[in-house]
Amino acid sequence: MKLDDYDKQRRYEATVVSSQRITADESDAEIREIVLEIAADFSFAIGQSIGVITPGPHALSHDEHFRLYSIADTPTAEAGKSRIVIAVRRVNYIDEYSGERYDGISSNYLCDRQAGDRVTITGPYGIVFEVPENKEANLILIGAGTGIAPFRAFVKHIYQDVRDWKGKVRLFYGAHTGLELVYMNEHRDDFALYYDEDTFEAFTALSPRPNWADPIAWDYALESRSEEILEMLDDPNTYVYVAGLEPVRDELDDVFARMTGSEERWHRRRAELVAGGRWTELLY
Q1: CA 164, CA 13: separation in Å to the nearest integer?
Q2: Which CATH number fits domain 3-125: 3.40.350.10, 2.40.30.10, 2.40.10.170, 3.90.180.10?
Q3: Whole-number Å distance between alpha carbons of 108 and 67
Q4: Which of 30, 77, 147, 211 could pair with 243 as two cysteines, CB 3.0-4.6 Å apart?
Q5: How far apart are the C-alpha atoms of 51 and 67, rounded to whole Å?
Q6: Up-side HSE of residue 82: CA atoms within 13 Å toward CB?
Q7: 250 CB contacts (<8 Å, ≥6 apart)?
């Protein structure tokens, strides 16, 4: 589904409650946790996203810019007002033809907002990652960068709201450096709340040489646990959820092809998982 296809007619005015940098100061990656408050009747479910409208005018005669952000926490309310948490990475890029540097429209707009500022939002949209009704379902969660945001809410919901989860939950979190990890680093580890759960394990995958722009080392994180992962994939009660930038798909395909023995075998297996609703991606 393309961004232009989303219904943006119903809009809400949200107030920025707080904006906190959650990557280390020495990191080149600036990721901020932004808390929004909405006075209107606005409800959402685990796994949904909101849209953010950035006022223009923008390049190409766009009066406004639209971008989706996954909700990074379970529903909460203060004094009858709904609160939404999103994780936003400030994006800048170099045009490959002109060599000019450009700022991402929505990300810079949001990262520059301060407490008390107003933001126009839309949604909520979709439930990409559904919580299985069967508490014995196994979950393989693979998130890269800010793709960890929906899984923060997902895991919290499983262990604090659903409770008594019996299936295995394996979380794999990838980033180029440890400094880019959010919600699971030495300064703030929200997933530490669940490390004592018998069913939960979390692993990180980092680039071996981040200064050389090496890809995330999914091979080490996944292949070192290939026996368990392949066993879980053979279980019809296992679901795989993937979130992050689009290149993650190719990177994971390479790793799983090695784990299953060939590209052909893996592509056939993944197609079966997708068709059965057991492999779901949220890529952007």
Answers
A1: 37
A2: 2.40.30.10
A3: 12
A4: 147
A5: 6
A6: 17
A7: none
Q: Identify the DSSP state of 181.
A: -
CATH class given for the domain over 138-283: alpha beta
DSSP assignments along 63-81, one per residue: SEEEEEEEB-S--EEETTE
Separation CA 259–CA 265 (nearest Å): 10
**What backbone torsions phi and psi does residue 59 show, to the nearest 5 degrees?**
-60, 155
Phi/psi at 281 (5° precision):
-120, 145
| Phi, psi of 27, deg, nearest 5 | -80, 145
| Beta strand ranges found along 90-237 (DSSP E) | 92-94, 101-103, 118-125, 138-144, 169-175, 200-206
Q: Tokens 């600036």 appear where?
A: 30
Any idea where the domains of the chain sit in the sequence?
A: 3-125, 138-283
Whole-angstrom distance, CA of residue 240 vs CA of residue 279 = 5
Q: What is the pLDDT of residue 225?
A: 93
For 237-266, what is each residue's pLDDT tens digit? 999 999 998 889 999 999 999 999 999 999
Nearest 5°: phi and psi at 122? -135, 170
Question: In which residue ranges of the chain is pLDDT below 70?
Answer: 1, 60-61, 95-96, 208-215
DSSP strands (E only) in the chain: 11-21, 31-38, 49-55, 64-70, 76-78, 81-89, 92-94, 101-103, 118-125, 138-144, 169-175, 200-206, 238-244, 279-283
